[in-house]
Specification:
The chain is an alpha+beta fold and 245 residues long. It contains eight helices and nine strands. A nine-stranded mixed beta sheet has the order 2-1-3-4-9-5-6-7-8. Helix 1 packs across helix 3 and helix 2 crosses helix 3. The radius of gyration is 24 Å and the shape is elongated.
Length: 245
C-alpha cells in the first residue's frame, strides 16, 4: 500500500466514510478509490487533493506540506493505534456533532486534530531561517527523528543565513544556510554562531585556556581574535551548511 493510499484510507476511516461514499463525492467509481488506497493506481496531485478535500481536508491546511513531503516522510502505519483508539471512543450525540462541526467551520480549521496532521507534526517541522539580527526570513521543512532534529530540541533549532564572506576560507559563503543547534559554551574546533558587541557571526573556535578563546575567521585572509568568555555569547553550533546552486 502506498503512503498516499494509507493517508486517504486513514482519513476516510476517521471520517467514517465508505469507499462508495468517497467515490460518489469525487465522481469516480468505488473500485477507483480502492485501487488508490491499495497503491495500485497512480494518480495526479490535483486528483489526490480532490479526494483528500472530499473527505475533509482543506487546501489551506496543507499549504506548508506538499504531497511529495507526505509520501516521502510520513509512515501512517505508526498512527494506526491512534486510529483504533479513536474508533473505539463513544460516538457523540447528533446535536454535539453539529456543534463541533459548526465551530470548526467558523474557525476554518477543517481537519484540525486529524490523524494526518497529528502525524505530520510529529515527523516534520518548519525550521525558521534567521538573518543576522535574528529575524525570520524564511523556513525549511525538516524531518524529526526520535523527537529530535540533529540531536536537539526541534523548537531550539534554526537555520542561520550567513551574512558575509568572512568564513569563506572555511568553505562557508554569504547566503549559505548554517543549521544551528543550541550550545551555550564554546566547543573547541567547532564552527559556532557567537554574539559579540551586538553582532552575530559564525566563527571557528579554539580554546586557549579556561577563560580565553580564539575566534577564527577567513575572508580575504586568515584572521584571529582572542577574547574573554565574558565578552561573547555562544548562540549555538553549526552542524551542517547548505547552499543553493
Amino acid at each position: 500500500m502506498s503512503r498516499l493510499g494509507d493517508l486517504i484510507r486513514t482519513e476516510r476511516i476517521r471520517q467514517k466514510l465508505t469507499p462508495k461514499q468517497v467515490a460518489k463525492k469525487c465522481g469516480v467509481s468505488e473500485s477507483y478509490i480502492l485501487a488508490v488506497e491499495a497503491g495500485t493506481r497512480i494518480i495526479a496531485d490535483d486528483q489526490a487533493r480532490r479526494i483528500l478535500k472530499s473527505i475533509g481536508l482543506k487546501q489551506q491546511n496543507e499549504a506548508d506540506f506538499t504531497l511529495d513531503d507526505i509520501a516521502a516522510t510520513v509512515d501512517l502505519a505508526q498512527v494506526q493505534p491512534s486510529l483504533a483508539q479513536a474508533a473505539a471512543r463513544p460516538k457523540p450525540k447528533a446535536e454535539d456533532a453539529v456543534k463541533v462541526a459548526s465551530t470548526e467551520e467558523e474557525k476554518g480549521e477543517g481537519v484540525t486534530g486529524s490523524v494526518w496532521l497529528d502525524a505530520l507534526t510529529s515527523v516534520l517541522k518548519n525550521v525558521p531561517v534567521m538573518n543576522a539580527v535574528m529575524k525570520p526570513v524564511n523556513h525549511r521543512l525538516m524531518p524529526i527523528l526520535n523527537g529530535r532534529i540533529e540531536g536537539a530540541n526541534p523548537e531550539k533549532v534554526f537555520w542561520f543565513l550567513v551574512p558575509d564572506d568572512s568564513m569563506r576560507g572555511f568553505r562557508i559563503h554569504a547566503q549559505d544556510l548554517a543549521l544551528i543547534v543550541p550550545a551555550q559554551s564554546p566547543i573547541d574546533g567547532a564552527v559556532m554562531l557567537v554574539e559579540k558587541d551586538g553582532h552575530r557571526n559564525l566563527r571557528k573556535i579554539k580554546k586557549l585556556d579556561a577563560t580565553t578563546i580564539m575566534l577564527q575567521s577567513y575572508g580575504r585572509e586568515y584572521d584571529a581574535e582572542n577574547v574573554q568568555l565574558n565578552e561573547i555569547t555562544c548562540v549555538g553550533r553549526a552542524v551542517k551548511v547548505e547552499f543553493e546552486v
